[in-house]
Design brief:
Layout lengths: L2 H10 L3 H8 L4 H11 L2 H23 L2 H17 L11 H19 L6 H4 L14 H5 L3 H9 L3 H11 L5 H8 L3 H21 L1
């Protein structure tokens, strides 16, 4: 091998295509660890490819605007990249960690939009605090899909996000505890109150 070719290989490094092909087979946790040690933005692009559409869809469900949802998606992934060293795989999966960041970002976005109104702001909030009996998700699953979607849109962003995390993203109670830094009973209470609101709003539609 010529000295020039050796220098080129040193500069260029290993076959990038093979490198990326192997990286795509890594788990989320393996990728995060590799990104944190290598600072390789191309590896982060693999995570973006895995979750970009899902994050966009979640953003769109809050923003109701394609352009805003795209902007939010870009901002969220930038925030995730900058905070990647804070990810703790012992507390939650990467997807759960990402979705919590996504929902929190969307909640802040909606709360900044003072023109947005929720039916829950026009109804007596104490009615929902009377939900002492557990509201079972099986009951909600029997609801008409179109009306249920409308009811979810009329929840507060915080209530909507915790329901979506639990029942759409299949995040466990344990992971929710770790993500929100509250106890099991607090998570279950928030979920039950949110479900009670869904039922109450659904009945008004």
């Amino acid at each position: 091998m010529s000295i020039l070719k050796m220098l080129i290989l040193i500069i260029v490094g290993p076959d990038k295509e093979t490198y990326m092909s192997l990286a795509k087979k890594m788990s989320d946790n393996e990728l995060v660890e590799k990104i944190n040690t290598s600072k390789d933005s191309q590896l982060f692009g693999i995570l973006y490819d895995r979750y970009g559409d899902k994050v966009y869809n979640k953003c769109f469900s809050f923003a109701k605007n394609d352009s805003a949802a795209k902007d939010l998606t870009q901002e969220i992934f930038l925030k995730v990249f900058l905070k990647l060293k804070l990810f703790n795989s012992e507390k939650a999966s990467f997807s759960t960690w990402l979705y919590v960041i996504t929902y929190n970002y969307c909640i802040n976005y909606v709360n900044r939009d003072v023109k947005k109104k929720h039916i829950s702001e026009r109804m007596d909030d104490h009615e929902y605090h009377l939900a002492d009996e557990e509201v079972h998700i099986d009951e909600i699953n029997t609801f008409d899909a179109e009306k249920l979607t409308k009811a979810l849109e009329l929840l507060s962003p915080e209530e909507k996000s915790i329901l979506l995390l639990k029942y759409q993203d299949d995040v466990s109670i344990k992971e929710l505890q770790a993500s929100f830094d509250v106890g099991e009973s607090a998570i279950k209470m928030r979920l039950n109150r949110a479900k009670a609101k869904v039922v109450k709003i659904y009945d008004t539609l």
